[in-house]
Structures are given as C-alpha cells and as structure tokens.
C-alpha cells in the first residue's frame, strides 16, 4: 500500500508511535516505540528478546498508532504485518532512528540481538480533529 503524503510527514517527524501486537493468549500488548520510514514501509528497532518481537514471530499482524509531534489532534492509525526481520547488532538502523529522536546515536551499546522489524501497512486511517491543544487553560 502507498502511504499518503501526510502519513509520510507524520512518520518522518520525531513522532512517538505505539505498536499493538498479540500475546499467545490473543490479548493485545501495546508498546511505545520509535519509528522511521523506508519508502512505504515503517522500520522499528528492538531486541529479539522483547515481548513485542516474540509476538511478531508467532503472529506478524500488528497495528501502529501515531500522534503528530506538532499537534496531538492529528492521529495516524495503520494495520498490517511485520514482513521482515533484519539483524541490527551493529546498530546501523537503530542509530539512525535514535538520531531522529535524540540527535545522538543509540546509547545502550551493551544490548545484544538487535533486530529491525519491517512493517508493511495494509490500511491507513488519518484523522485531523479541529481542536486546539491548550491543556489546563480556561
């Protein structure tokens, strides 16, 4: 599926994402995650030992939710599958993702069995709600 230009803008910004995976029981697990885009694919780095990574081995179906970095009332939701797992023990992709969010390489160099989960969206839902973000104001 081709992502819309607006979806690409949201993914390319330092937008925090949440990935929903399925536990062995079928219950959902939601985890915050950093993302980056490669064409129409979404990349995310993690460890092979994390629950979200284990879940995607058993069942590659996932959902991603992103709230715009600039305006929390711009929301992007996607459903699809993890179509590839790329080893990243040398932190090449993770460093690129970390620089997007922190302007520095990924700091935890002691972590092992790093993997990049490659997500291919099958659906995209973009919602732009015309609210003003002004918490606590009267």
Brief descriptors of the model:
138 residues, alpha+beta, 3 helices, 42% strand
Short account of what is shown:
The chain is an alpha+beta fold and 138 residues long. It has helices spanning 5-12, 51-58, 92-102; strands at 17-22, 28-33, 36-38, 41-47, 61-67, 74-87, 114-128.
Topology (elements, then pairings):
Layout (H helix, E strand, L loop, with lengths): L4 H8 L4 E6 L5 E6 L2 E3 L2 E7 L3 H8 L2 E7 L6 E14 L4 H11 L11 E15 L10
Antiparallel strand pairs: 1-2, 1-5, 3-4, 4-7, 5-6, 6-7
How much of the polypeptide forms β-strand, as a percent range?
Answer: 35-45%
Spatial order of the strands in the main sheet? 2-1-5-6-7-4-3
Structural class: alpha+beta
Q: Helix coverage percent of residues?
A: 10-25%
User: End-to-end distance, in Å?
Assistant: 43 Å
Q: Please give the largest β-sheet.
A: 7 strands, antiparallel
Q: What letter string, H or E per element, gives the SSE order?
A: HEEEEHEEHE
* Averaged pLDDT: 93
Taken from the alpha-carbon principal axes, the silhouette is: globular
Our Rg estimate from Cα atoms comes to 15 Å
